[in-house]
Design brief:
The structure is a single chain. This protein is an alpha+beta fold and 180 residues long. The chain folds into two domains: 1-31; 36-176, CheA-289, Domain 4 (OB fold (Dihydrolipoamide Acetyltransferase, E2P), Beta Barrel). Helices cover 26% and strands 38% of the residues. The protein has five helices and nine strands, in the order αβββββαββαββαα. Strands 1, 2, 3, 4, 5, 6 and 7 form a seven-stranded mixed sheet that branches. A two-stranded antiparallel ribbon has the order 8-9. β4 (75-81) and β5 (84-90) form a beta hairpin. The termini are far apart.
Length: 180
């Protein structure tokens, strides 16, 4: 082994040691436990978030959906997801009467609350948002169509983020009776 190879090997060992040291130190740092996490998306142009702990999975809208005869217009259909049947509901159409125009940013948020497993089609997914407890608002003004589902709100530099409660959604009588 020549001296250039030896010095390169030593450099790599030093880098590895520094990485291990930083990883160990970061495990011991005091992490802010008061951060709230949500999945951010738009409902007819309005920015909202749904709690990440109420979403079990996120995926693209399946290309094959089976329509359900006699179902409300906001029921997109039933999808076969890895061998399990999953009802897909258009959240925007349910709340605002305006169906999502599916695009590359549209996603299905799978919720599993009190034995209700459902996929919620949402348009224009923004991504995960984290908020500190100090940014929680005591009240927020929202469209009356979604007001009944809002459980909280947060504010950051990009604006106000109402929180859609999945618990309130699955408890909503109209949502539970998806037949037209």
């Amino acid at each position: 082994m020549d001296s250039n190879q030896l010095s390169a090997l030593e450099v790599l060992r030093e880098i590895e040691q520094r990485c291990k040291s930083r990883a160990l130190n970061s495990q011991h740092e005091n992490v802010d436990q008061s951060l709230w996490a949500g999945m951010a998306f738009r409902l007819s142009g309005r920015k909202v978030v749904a709690p990440m702990n109420e979403i079990s999975e996120i995926f693209n809208l399946p290309t094959s959906l089976t329509r359900v005869p006699g179902a409300s217009p906001w029921v997109k259909g039933i999808a076969n997801i890895r061998g399990s049947l999953l009802p897909i509901m258009d959240l925007q159409a349910f709340l605002l009467g305006k169906p999502v125009v599916a695009n590359r940013r549209s996603r299905v948020l799978v919720i599993n609350h009190d034995d209700t497993v459902t996929g919620l089609l949402v348009g224009d997914v923004i991504g995960m948002k984290h908020f500190s407890a100090k940014h929680r608002l005591s009240s927020v003004r929202v469209d009356s169509a979604i007001e009944r589902l809002i459980s909280a709100a947060y504010k950051d530099v990009s604006g106000t983020w109402p929180v859609i409660s999945i618990e309130k959604l699955v408890s909503d009588e109209q949502f539970r009776k998806a037949a037209a």
